[in-house]
Amino acid sequence: MLTLMLSMLMAATPDPDAGRAAPPAAAGSSVAALLDRGAEVGRPFPAKHDARSMATQRNTGKAASIQALAAAARRRGLDRATDVVAAEAAFRDMLLAEKLMQTLTDTIVIDEAEVRSRFDRDPDRYDEFDISHIFIPSGADARSDADRNGAARARAVVAKLRQGSDFAALARETSADGTTAADGGRLPLILGADIQPTFMAAIAPLKDGQISDVVKGTDGYHVIRLNQRRHAYSGPARDRIEREIRTREMERLLPKVHALATGAE
Prior knowledge:
Elements (H helix, E strand, L loop, with lengths): L1 H8 L15 H15 L14 H4 L2 H16 L6 H24 L6 H10 L1 H4 L1 E10 L7 H18 L4 H8 L3 H4 L8 E2 L5 H7 L11 E2 L3 E11 L4 H28 L3
Antiparallel strand pairs: 1-2, 1-4, 3-4
Helix pairs in contact: 2-12, 6-12
């Protein structure tokens, strides 16, 4: 249920700078094919901005077992099997392509001034929101009795809260979100960029401790309490902005990747 509630609240909101340097369609298809191929085995070469050590990800015991089995296979001549030779060649090609992609992405430089500027100019997108909600289910048909009853129940919840009822207690008593209800309706911290516009419109004007009016979701009604809005230039917000900048810069590199892939360079 928590996953469902988060999916209802969250949105894949686009990067505000996305699409300003759209790559040619041919380049996109070439890169998509390359990335699809690489996704089958993951990223063998960590990027410079990935601080994780490959050594910490390797299970030494499992690696030793694989090496022993591979040695046994070689003794039986299985390394010369047609399908093995073809797979090795394909994997080698993938590694080389991945290494080339890494050399290109390693040229991307994150400008601190741009990161800070984006953070400051769009707080609704990059602030963190600590919110709780009470969920009242309804019918899919907005004209149905179930929907009208759900809306009436949600309005009654708002009325009780306006009269001073405790939000957490009311969530435990009335919310249909069984996962969060036990915790007073509290949801994990979420960036504004990941909140659906409908919900963001209700949350953004709130001050800490205030509750929203009734908000219509896809299969019910929500009453939302803003516990705290955090305007912090660190952690998730900064990471999100850097990812958006990297994505934008990778889009700008696509023509070069396409040229390399087609031998046009």
